[in-house]
Amino acid sequence: MAAKSPTVLVLGAGANIGQSVARTFASKGYKVALAARSIKANDSTADQLNIPSDFSNTDAVLDAFAKVKQVFGIPSVVIYNSSAVHFTPADDPFAISLADFTRDTTVNIHSAFVAAQQAVAGFAELPASAARTFIYTGNVLNVAVLPKFVSQGIGKSGAAHMIWAASAAYKDRGFKFYYADERKADGSPKYRIDGDAHAKLYWDLAHTETQLPWMQTFVQGEGYKEFNNLYQA
């Protein structure tokens, strides 16, 4: 009997990182589950499951995990790639409604927390040979203040703390957790991020046996690169 294909679940599967990750993992034998607001369930195939999802509602995370488990089985790689921001004036970071702030925080932290909980529950049922990796697509905002991005900065900072804690807590069980942040070569933020560079890093992280540095700052074409982590805008 042929071995069952492993599964990657991408939560927040947009046209850039999400599709690049899907192509990379599919080309290497993975079943791919993609969850996003714009995706169409009817476009699913035998090897790709599309799950319409809005992560401003944490129940959407539970629904995505339930569907992928039913169709493909427990995902051994989970990528949280969803993000939200309502911009504020640079000189008035509190000029955001509580409703908008709450929505952004739900997408950036609460749904990511639920995803990590679900991932850990699944990883515990998988063999040690499985990748058992959770990756959060971050940016520089956990170590920098950029004008207008206060709600996203709070979200990314909270998520980074979660990933840091998880990387230590689950290390001995072989579960890996990463916060990925693409930078320019000088360490400054990269606003036009490269989907293929993310996909390569995510593949490498998932298939390295031991936990590497939880905060994966990286440069396109170079891979992981450690920076003095306080960037001044």
UniProtKB/TrEMBL annotation:
Annotated GO MF terms:
oxidoreductase activity
- SUPFAM superfamilies with a match to the protein in the record: NAD(P)-binding Rossmann-fold domains
Which sequence ranges form a coiled-coil region, renumbered to this chain?
Answer: none
Ordered alphabetically, the record's keywords are: Oxidoreductase
Record-linked Pfam families: adh_short (PF00106)
UniProt superkingdom: Eukaryota
Q: Identify the stretch annotated as signal peptide in this record.
A: none
Keyword Oxidoreductase in record: yes
Task: Give the protein family.
Answer: Belongs to the short-chain dehydrogenases/reductases (SDR) family.
Name of the molecule in the record? Short chain type dehydrogenase
Q: Which organism is it from?
A: Saitozyma podzolica
